[in-house]
Amino acid sequence: MNEIPLSMSTATYHYVSGGPGIDDINVQCEPGSWTAVMGPSGAGKSTLLYCASGLLPVSDGSVYIAGRDISKMREKQLTQMRRDHIGFVFQDYNLVEAFTCLQNVMLTYLFGGPKILKDQALRALQVMGLDGFADTYPADMSGGQRQRVSIARALAAEPDIVFADEPTGALDTHSSQMVLDAFDRIIQEGRTVLMVTHDPNVAARAHRTLFLVDGRVHSVCEGYSSEQLASHLANMTNMGQELGQ
Ligand SMILES: Nc1ncnc2c1ncn2[C@@H]1O[C@H](COP(=O)(O)OP(=O)(O)OP(=O)(O)O)[C@@H](O)[C@H]1O
Deepest of 62, 217, 226, 243, by most Cβ within 10 A of its Cβ? Predict the structure, then answer.
């Protein structure tokens, strides 16, 4: 893929009910890049991910995925574009309780995702350390295992760009490493990751970290250690508290 996988220009979204959302976001993600998004609670991190992936329409500005302006797309085109280019890891997993793990990974096309072959799905489960869980239902799994199923589902079709909202939020250190190693392989293959995280240790594995405050990009940090990221985040959070958020 030669196009820039993701480009957001003056992208803005305000919730109808008054939530601040995001304001004037200008971000480009190159092929083979890994970007983390951090910031205080309510800073707009998930909203940024939703707008970047077309799950929410920007009210102003534009979002290009693989060189195409998704803010101008109709729902059918948008669904096609998501199937062809995007994997999304949701914060709350979004697993279908009536489906087994294998079905959850394979049947994404029922919900606008790509069609995934059984072998692909089994491989993705194996990469997430879930061999032997193909026929297990989400209800019989721990939070961390469910999260790994949702990651397997997002990675199975080898999308050009993976959006991940707190992908390691429910995971122990070992499982987190598994996920971060999988992201490492993705970027080595020239694909792209944009990930929201609260964990400076996780963000330190990315190439750069965008810090959001009050819906806007406050700073972009490259080459920061986890300690430096933690200290930067603490400053943002104090700033938010001083502003009364
Ligand atoms: N569906 C919604 N309707 C109205 N306001 C919303 C909605 N979703 C989020 N918001 C508001 O928009 C702002 C940004 O929310 P968002 O979830 O993007 O922040 P966040 O940085 O991901 O927060 P957290 O770290 O707590 O998950 C917050 O003030 C939130 O209350």
Answer: 217
